[in-house]
Each structure stands twice: as structure tokens, then as C-alpha cells.
Amino acid sequence: MEKAKKKPVLRWVLLALLLILAVLLLVNRYTVRQVWCNVFSPTLKLEEPSDWDRIRCYEHLAYADDSEAQYVDLYVPPMEAPAPLFVLIHGGGFAFNDAQSRQAQFMYHYFADHGFACASVNYRLSTEAAYPAAVCDVKAAVRFLCRNAAEYGIDAERIAVWGESAGGYLACMTALSAPEAFSDTLCIGETEDARFEMPAFDALVDYYGCIDFVSQRGNFAEEGLVTWIPTLANGWANEVLGDYGSLEELWLRKNYADWGDAEKIGASPLQRAMRQENGNPGLRTLLIHGDADITVSQLQSVELYEALKANGEDVTLRLVPGCKHADDRLYTNKLLGEVELFLWDSFGK
């Protein structure tokens, strides 16, 4: 009898879902496509490289002492010569995750196995410290690693930075700002009067990063996406927002109505690119974004690409069909192999 009662309920649920899908299909086929790609995105198995036992691991390596969050997990391949440094910055809306995020693991498993010293940077989240703390932390980590390059087998003359989502934003802020900018965090060994030199980056790899907090507010509507879909899909962030309306507002500690030039211009990698404030002349940039992303619009990467291209800078945009935000398929050996070739070319190999 119980089973007989459940079947009509299930039928009504399925009927309701079909009706919703039908309405969406009539109103907006693009939205249906985006939702479909997100719901049915495959998951890949995260595997350790076969030669992982030979990788030198320095985990929870402190680069500053203001917070327990300020550490890097460093993985150095077994090479006679120093390995180029690939700085990895995890995402999580500035408020979640750490240096061992799934995406960071995909990256250091592949690249440490292919000749790169991979430093996955942990930084203070927005629940602990407001903007620009995380940017300052990343720069302090880079200065610390390069200052101690000989000890860890790092080539401080060849450096690239990668980030995904909020980490993509942090990677862009790090690479596109002047060396002396965002230097509030002292790394271990520095003093207020004597900071280590901030090295230049050869390459920037941005995976689906939020690039401009102002323009992204209207990007989904520009795409033609029903705007309540991203709101619904990203409701997981509500648990930390408190009185703020978004993760960006929480990090900036200001609601959108109170943003001034410091937030709209100073905190925007896109604005820095448009104003030609690139702190790393000769920087090569690779932007990778899934075209079914309903967390950070693909238009964010398009806008940064157009701004850098207009400045005559070396930039490549790769929009990957059918991939959602943080999609595992953005971390296949095939696509990471393309990133690897881009890095070696950037280092002049």
C-alpha cells in the first residue's frame, strides 16, 4: 500500500518538473541549455600521478605569521636544475575552500608531474579578513618563495600564476598590479622598512575568474540567461553573507550602494587592464572559461580578453563548450596539456 501511495506523488513531482522545463523552453532555450549542462556535467576521478612518491612535498609551509591561514603547500619535482614556479590560487567565493581544494589538486598533480614547482597558496578568507587581505597574502607568499628559492629548488626567474573563480580574480590582481602594490602583508623575514623584491610574472592563467564586480552584475542578463537561475544555483553562499547581498560585498565589507572608486576601480582587474596598469610588462595571459557557467559569466573573461587585446598584450581566450563553473572537464590531461605548452612558451623554452 505504501508503494502505491508514493507513485502518484512521484508522478506529480515529475509532471511539475516537466511543466517548468516546458515553460523555460518556450521562454528561453538558452537558459534550458545552460541548466542542462550544469545538471548533467560528468565528474572525473582525481588520481595521483604514478611518479608522485618522488615529488618533494612541503605542506603547511608558513609564509607569514599574522594568521594560521597564511601557508603554502609546495610540491617540487625531482629535477637537477631548479624548477619554474607555478603559483596556484584556489577559489571559493573568497569565503570557502583552502589550498587543498579539488581544483588545486588537479593542478598540482598534473604540473608537479610535468616539471613545475607548484605552490598552492592558502590565504585569509573574507570571513576572517576583508579586501585586499587575500591579494596581499598571495603577493607575500610569492615574495617568500622567491626569497627562499634556492632552499626549495625553485627557479625564481620563471614564474607563472593560476587561479580559479575567486582565485582567478586574485591571480589577475596579483599579476596585473604594480610590484609594490598590495604589500601590506609582511612575509617571514621582512620588516616594515625592508621588503623582499616582488618578482615579475611570465604568465597568467585565469580559470573562470570574476574580473569586475560591477559589470558581472548584469552579465547574465546580457547572455540571455533567466537571472533567477544563477541566484538559485548559488544560494549555497547565503550561510556566510549576513547583512551583505553577495560574496563580493562581504569581502569588500560594503553593500553595492556604498561602493566608490576604491571598490569599482581599485578592486577591479578589468579596470586595471583598461587603464593599462599592468605591473608585468610582457606578461602572457591565458583565459579559460566554460560557456555554461552560471556562477561567473563567461562575459567576465571576454571583457578582460578584449581589454588586454586592445592594449596590444599577448592574451588568449578559450571558451570551452558545455562546461559549467569549476567543471572537471576543464582539468583533463588534454586541456592541462594545452596550459603546459602555453607556460613553456611563456618561459621561452
Describe the structure.
The protein is an alpha/beta fold. The chain has 2 domains: 2-39; 52-346, Rossmann fold (3-Layer(aba) Sandwich). Helix content is 40%, strand content 16%. It contains 14 helices and 8 strands. An 8-stranded mixed β-sheet has the order 1-2-4-3-5-6-7-8, with helices on both faces. The longest helix is centred in the first third of the chain and has 26 residues, at 2-27. It is globular.
The rounded distance between the terminal residues' Cα atoms is 71 Å
Specify the helix fraction band.
Answer: 25-40%
Shape: globular
| CATH architecture level-2 label of the largest domain | 3-Layer(aba) Sandwich
Main-sheet strand order equals 1-2-4-3-5-6-7-8
Q: Main β-sheet, in a few words?
A: 8 strands, mixed
CATH topology-level name of the largest domain:
Rossmann fold
Strand content: 15-25%
H/E series, N to C? HHEEEHEHHEHEHHHHHHEHEH
How many DSSP-defined strands? Answer: 8
Number of domains: 2
CATH superfamily label of the largest domain: Alpha/Beta hydrolase fold, catalytic domain
Query: Would you tell me the structural class of the helices and strands?
Result: alpha/beta
Structure annotation, total helices: 14
Assigned CATH class of the largest domain: Alpha Beta
Unreliable stretches, pLDDT < 50, 5 or more residues? 1-5
What would you report as the Rg, rounded to the nearest angstrom? 21 Å
Estimate the mean pLDDT confidence: 92
